Amino acid sequence: MTTGTPALAMRELLADIDNSPPGPATGAYFDFDGTLIRGHSSMAFCVNRLRHAEWPAEAWHALTSAPPHRIAADLWRARSGVETCAAARLAAAAAACWHGRTEDELGMLSERVYREEIAPKIDRDMWALVRAHQAKGHSVCVATAASSAQVAPLAHALGVSELLCTPVPVVDGRVVTDTLPTMCSGADKLAAVRAHARRHGIALSDSYAYCDGYEDIPLLQAVGRPRVVRARAALAAEAGRQGWPSALVGRPRDSVLDKLRATAGAAGAATVSLAGALAAAGAGCEPRAVVSRAVRLGSALILRAAGVEVAVRGGHRPAPVGPAVYVANHTSPLDAVVLARLIDGDWCAVVKRELGDVPVLGSCLRFADTLFVDRSRPLQSVDLLDRAVERLSSGRSVLVLPEGTRALTPDVGPFRSGAFHMAARAGVPVVPIAIHNATDVMARSGLTLRPGTIEVTVLPPVDTRGWDPAKIRTEADRVRQSLVEALRA
């Protein structure tokens, strides 16, 4: 960040939105690559095709069609933020992956790349800013040089219907990329934004633009509230001259060494914990006592070895309420370790059946009296419910992640009602726990960890006595909404 450029932390960015005029006359224009997501979606398409062994020769040609010295110069310019040529080359490579496909085929490819490559790159803070603008009734629009194939799935997930992007050329129902259309970038993006503002009665002087690239300087100059996101040298220098505020979103990148050290430390601690639990089990120790000690010690060792701290907002850990059903949002593989560190006493978890087939881990889960749910056989849910109620009645708590799988986006997904049925039948409270930022430490599908602090909020226990069995769905939605509000706080 250039000296003299004001910096706005997330609380200041959100407060500014909250104090802005409500209604659709205020626009909020978000760039896509490098802003809403980290990295470039064109590269995500190329990587995904390689991952599925579908790399076409045309894509390689698009990347290498210029002389080596020109490619090197483009990459050097991109490093400082002047990346028009490099972005065009990447876009051509991605477009080559689409050539000849039908629109339906492109749509399926786009959804696959979104699930596997782009969703894990979503910036959680930028997502929160979009939600804040939507809550004020602002006209939210994604304005990007990326194509509709790259940006549409994320825009749909955000509920943003207004897209200003590079069109995908289609002839006779098939994508044709022999000649690419003009990219929605620089002056062309500004023209598109101005036309959009005229159509919708938006005052650009009262509007926001969130951008990361040098090519977006014309747009940032045109709005009343420019916000520079993760600017590199070229844009940072211009932002310093113009006095544009820099949005302090996300967290700085860690070195590869830091990630490797954290991951190796966590793996070593997990191995020690598993070995200790198995040794105690072999020595004939009482299983429930072994499991309780191993879970508490193992989770603490894993987090400490990885350089990860768990900070409870308000300082309130789960109160000793006796047996309870603990529920939490689920975005990261690390969620279970964080919850194990928080929950005291004797408890077991409900996990997907596939984990029982994992060597060593599956044996440990069965030894811990874990409840396995087969999501492909819903008729087994009655038996699972009976077994869960039996454990609760014996004094054990149960941990459930009611979304059923890790969420693709920072939003809390729909809750399944099983956890709430078991709590109501056993007459025990539901304790909601909001995990704010576990993906900052370990991504949704990540294999490595990074040091950091995970913040959680433990909500007050919800009394389930008197719940009407016919209205469990409503009660589940209320608990989910309390988690949503805690995560936004």
Structural commentary:
- The chain has 489 residues and is an alpha/beta fold.
- The protein folds into two domains: 7-247, Rossmann fold, CATH 3.40.50; 256-488, Glycerol-3-phosphate (1)-acyltransferase, CATH 3.40.1130.
- 46% of the residues lie in helices and 14% in strands.
- It is built from 18 helices and 16 strands.
- The protein has helices at residues 10-18, 41-51, 57-64, 68-79, 84-96, 103-118, 124-135, 148-158, 187-200, 217-222, 233-242, 256-282, 287-306, 335-342, 361-367, 381-393, 418-426, 472-488, and strands at 7-8, 27-30, 139-147, 162-166, 170-171, 174-175, 208-211, 225-229, 246-247, 308-312, 325-328, 347-352, 371-373, 397-400, 430-435, 452-458.
- Strands 1-9-8-7-2-3-4 form a seven-stranded parallel beta sheet, with helices on both faces.
- The two termini are 28 Å apart.
- Mean pLDDT is 82; it is low at 75-83.
For CATH, the homologous superfamily of the largest domain is named as HAD superfamily/HAD-like
Radius of gyration: 25 Å
Kindly report the average pLDDT value.
82
Number of domains: 2
Bin the strand percentage. 5-15%
Give the class-level CATH name of the largest domain: Alpha Beta
Low-confidence stretches: 75-83
Please list the strands of the largest sheet in the order they lie side by side: 1-9-8-7-2-3-4
Pfam family, one: Acyltransferase
Protein name: Putative phosphoserine phosphatase/1-acylglycerol-3-phosphate O-acyltransferase
InterPro entries: HAD-like_sf, HAD_hydro_SerB1, HAD_sf, Plipid/glycerol_acylTrfase
GO molecular function: 1-acylglycerol-3-phosphate O-acyltransferase activity; hydrolase activity
